[in-house]
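EI: anyone free to look at a 143-residue chain?
SC: sure, send it
EI:
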Amino acid sequence: MTQASPNHAAIDVAVGILMQPNGDVLLGQRPTGKPYAGYWEFPGGKVELGESIFDALKREFVEELGIEILSAEPWCGVQHQYPHANVRLHFFISREWHGEPQSLEGQAFAWQGSVRVEPLLEATIPLIAWLDQLRDELRFTSN
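SC: here you go
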């Protein structure tokens, strides 16, 4: 892998968190041939030139999962420096989509309540704790 300089422009990445009514979220395992193959992450991908972040999210979910995002709310942004790239991750939570997720790029998927899959990409780890807190708040307000 090539070493990315912290001065390199950040690559914008649209990331989607599919959340079922019970709070479970979908994680995907990076396929062979990609950096960090075998690591688990939330589905998404690079924003193309001239594309909005939300449009990139919708496109990536059609390409990777074969589903149509009906709505999604921006949740948070995280910038992370990997050895090979500086990425700016734009996270959305979607509770409404059309279709059942399929593995269109050969990756494994797992619905997770308490996340038990390993290893997780570095930038994904803090999000898991934040999601647990969000799910706890949602359970508290729905009771």
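EI: The chain has two helices and seven strands.
SC: 👍
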